[in-house]
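Lab channel / #folding
Pinned by the channel admin:
"Please post every new chain as: sequence first, then the structure tokens as a reply. Keep commentary short and put observations after the output so the thread stays searchable."

First post following the new format, from NK:
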Amino acid sequence: MQSLKLVNGDIVFDENGELIMIEGPEEVAQCAADVLGTNKKEWFLNPLKGIKFRAFLDKYQSEEEMREEIRQGLFQEPRIKTVESIHFTIDRKKRTIEIHFQATADTGERINEAVTIDAG
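Reply from TO:
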């Protein structure tokens, strides 16, 4: 499958003004990152897409609950078959969460990705 390459939600063009297309592990990682960057019920065309940002914003956060929310979000991308690791860093001052994950796609290819969620 191919998709348009996105950086911070914007379409990327090459030096000739042509759209850049991606495929393979990079495209799967981009789709998974899109799910993690979407608050559940935020997108009216698919209210089930995304993760519950509330799990990361509560005063008394459960690391286990946050990790499970991320795992469930990753499995919304049907081409992800296994999730090997999830690490996240919370920056309370900037109100952001940086999520690093390693997963395996249905093709057997490894996916390493980092996603930043802005909770501000």
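NK: DSSP finds three helices and seven strands in the chain.
TO: also worth noting, The longest strand covers residues 80-91.
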